Amino acid sequence: MAVAWDDGVDDVLAGDLTAALGYRTPAGGVVVQAVAPIGLRDRAAGTVGFTTSLGFSKKLERIARDARVALAFHAREHGFSERPEYVLVQGRARVIAEPTQAERDEVRTQAARYLGPAAEGWFWDRWLREYYAVRVPVRIDVERIVVWPDLACAGVPRVLGAPAADAPPAPHKPPKGGTGPRVDPAKTAKRLRATRHVLLGYAGGGDGFPMLVPVTIAGTGDAGLELSSQAPLPPGGRRAGIVGHSYRPKLIGLETRQHTGWLEVGDDGARWAPHTQTGYKAPPNKTLLLLLNGALAKRGVRQARKAAP
Questions:
Q1: Residue 2 counted as domain residue
Q2: Gap between the Cα atoms of 50 and 29, Å rounded
Q3: What is the distance between the alpha carbons of residues 296 and 43, in angstroms, rounded to a whole number?
Q4: CB 68 within 8 A of CB 76
Q5: Residue 290: left if φ>0, alpha if ψ -120 to 50, beta else—which one?
Q6: Nearest alpha carbon to residue 72 among 6, 147, 137, 127
Q7: CATH number at residue 195
Q8: Does 296 reside within a domain?
Q9: For 216-275, how does the pLDDT look when each residue is reduced to its tens digit (9 = 90+)?
Q10: Beta-carbon neighbour count of residue 279 at 10 Å?
Q11: Which of left, alpha, beta for 38 (phi over 0: left; psi -120 to 50: alpha)?
Q12: Helix 57-65 and helix 286-307: axis angle, to 10°?
C-alpha cells in the first residue's frame, strides 16, 4: 500500500533544491551523497524521486543489488519551501534506465525550474550529449517517512507508513583492516567544517533502511572525529558514511566531501574514523560548470562501457 503524506511534507518534497541520498554497501555500510530531487514525486502512487546519470555506474550497481535507500530533505536554502521540518524518506529504489518520452519531458521540465534552462546550440548539444542523454529518473517506492519538527532533528519524530524499529541496529563486526582512521582526521574535519551541511548515514534497525541525520564535528584526535547529534545515534560500532556539502542557487557553484568510515558510539560519546574520501568543488560559473559536467559525464559513460561484460 502506498504511503500517504500530508501537505506540509509535500511542500518540503516539492521545494528542496537538493537532498542527501543514502544507499547501502555490500558490507552493510551506507554511502551518502547529495542529489537533485527536482520535485519528482507522486502522492497517489506513493513515490519520490531524484535524477542521476547512467555514467555513475557504481552507485547504480549498488542500488540494483540492494534497493533499500533513503532521501533526507535537510536544507531549505535556494529552494521553494520555507517549512521547518527535516524529512527522511525510506523506500526501495527503481532506476528507470529507459524512460519514456513523457518521463524524459518531465525531468527536463522540472530540471529547468530548479536548475535553470538547459544549454543548447551546436557546441553544447555535442558536449553535453552524454550528460543529458543518460540522465535518468530514479523512483523510490516509499515505505516510511520520518519527520522531525526541525532541521536539527531535535525532538520526537513522527512516522508515516511502516512503523520504525523498536530497538537500535546491532553492532557490526569490525573490518579486517581495523576500525581506526585511514584518512587524516584533522584534514577531514577541516574540509567537512568548511561545508554548510554535514550528514551521517548508517543502516537502521529492523528492515535495514539507511538512516541519515545531521551531525556536528565537536572535536578531532588521532582516533577520529568526535561527533554530536540531536538525533540519538545507535550504540556500538558500525560502518557509516558522511557527506559534507554546500551549494548555491540552481547548484551553480557547489562543494561536496564524501567519506566512508567507522562509527563508534559509547558512554563517552560518538567517534567516527574516516576510511575513504572523495569530493569536488564546482565553480560558481554556469559555463565552467557545464564544461565540467560534460567532461565528467563523458568519462563516466566511457568507464561504464569498459566495465560492461
A1: no
A2: 21
A3: 34
A4: no
A5: alpha
A6: 147
A7: 2.30.110.10
A8: yes
A9: 999 999 999 999 999 999 999 999 999 999 999 988 888 999 999 999 999 999 999 999
A10: 15
A11: left
A12: 60
Whether 1 maps to a domain, the answer reads no
What's the domain count of the chain? 1
36 close to 17: Cβ distance less than 8 angstroms:
yes
* Dist CA 239 CA 216 (whole Å): 18
Residue type, 260: T
Instruction: Indicate whether 50 belongs to any domain.
Output: yes
**Rounded Cα gap, residues 148 and 165, in angstroms:** 16
**Digit-coded pLDDT (tens) for 46-91:** 999 998 876 555 778 889 899 999 999 999 999 999 999 999 999 9
* pLDDT tens digits for range 96-144: 878 888 888 888 889 888 988 888 888 988 888 777 766 778 999 999 9
Q: What residue has cell string 557545464?
A: 290
CA 200 to CA 210: how far, in whole Å? 10
Domain membership of residue 293 as a residue range: 7-161+169-307
User: β-pairing, 41-42 with 135-148?
Assistant: unpaired
- The three state secondary structure string of the chain is CCCCCCHHHHHHHHHCCCEEEEEECCCCCEEEEEEECCCCEECCCCEEEEEEECCCHHHHHHHHHCCEEEEEECCCCCCCCCCCCEEEEEEEEEECCCCCHHHHHHHHHHHHHHHCCCCCCHHHHHHCHHHHHCEEEEEEEEEEEEEECCCCCCCCCEEEECCCCCCCCCCCCCCCCCCCCCCCHHHHHHHHHCCCEEEEEEECCCCCCEEEEECEEEEEECCEEEEECCCCCCCEEEEEEEEEEEECHHHCCEEEEEEEEEEEEECCEEEEEEEEEEEEEECCCHHHHHHHHHHHHHHHHHHHHHHCC
| Backbone φ, ψ for residue 42 (5° rounding) | -145, 100
pTM, to two decimals: 0.92
